[in-house]
Amino acid sequence: MIHITVTSGQEHDRMVMADILARQDDFRIACLGADGYDALMSAKTQHPDIIIMDYCMQDITCTDLAPVIKRSSPSTALIALCTGNEHCIAGKVLQAGVSGCLSRQDDFTILPSTVRCVYHGGLYLSQPISNQILHIAEDAVCPDNHITDTLFTSTELRIFYGISLGYTDKEIAQSLNINIGSLRNIITRVKEKTRLKNRTQMTIFALSVAMMNRGSIKGQLTDVS
Question: What pLDDT, in 10s, does the model give residues 59-116?
Fold first, then answer.
């Protein structure tokens, strides 16, 4: 049974999502909330498998709240609901530890498949958001479009996959059985090779690489949750 908390400041959306999810035999609604406080209290007291929340809530943004929830309930996976003008911050949302970004342009009927994907360790991006992130990656990281010609080692690809799932450096290093110093040296070399400047660009780039190589690297990163 997958236990789910739904948090949205829009009552209509909250009730529609709850109704769709409640129809699934393997889902159970743990909590319905209206803001970030409700999401955090559910994480602390109920430890749901999934929390679905608005990107921008009346008391906090998803970007600020996600790391706090992950500290309170590390096993809880997060899905953010983004509007059209929030696509540009999707990279920051993923960096904060969110495993799914669902656009409100999409029909909520895809929510059950999104929940199952994230619950089983996957990363879900609705099409408008994934298109935006790949566009950002091209513009910010590879303006001359030569990045697709760059070859990466198996270890680098596994590091990309871990970053794209929101794992910390420590978690990725433990999973790959290397020390954190070696991991950071590899990341530094990748930044030099790809001309990445900061962690946000690294997250966006890691996501684009992981999406292109998911079939070959998904099973190679040990579960660190």
Answer: 998 888 998 999 889 999 999 988 766 555 666 777 788 888 888 776 788 899 889 9
| DSSP class of 60 | -
| Residue 209 one-letter amino acid | V
In the block, which residue shows the tokens 């970030």? Answer: 36
Check whether residue 117 and residue 170 sit in a common domain.
no
- Under 8 Å between Cβ of 171 and 177: no
- Cα 31 to Cα 15: distance, rounded to the nearest angstrom: 12
Residue 48 lies in a domain: yes
- Record the pTM: 0.64
Q: What is the dihedral of CA 202, 86, 32, 71, to 10 degrees?
A: 20
In this predicted model, what pLDDT tens digit does every residue of 36-51 receive, in sequence order?
999 999 999 999 999 9
Sequence length of the chain is 225
Phi, psi dihedrals of residue 100, rounded to the nearest 5°: -150, 135
> In CATH, what number is assigned to the domain containing residue 187?
1.10.10.10
Structure tokens at 19: 């109704």
- Kindly give the pairing relationship between strand 2-7 and strand 50-54: parallel
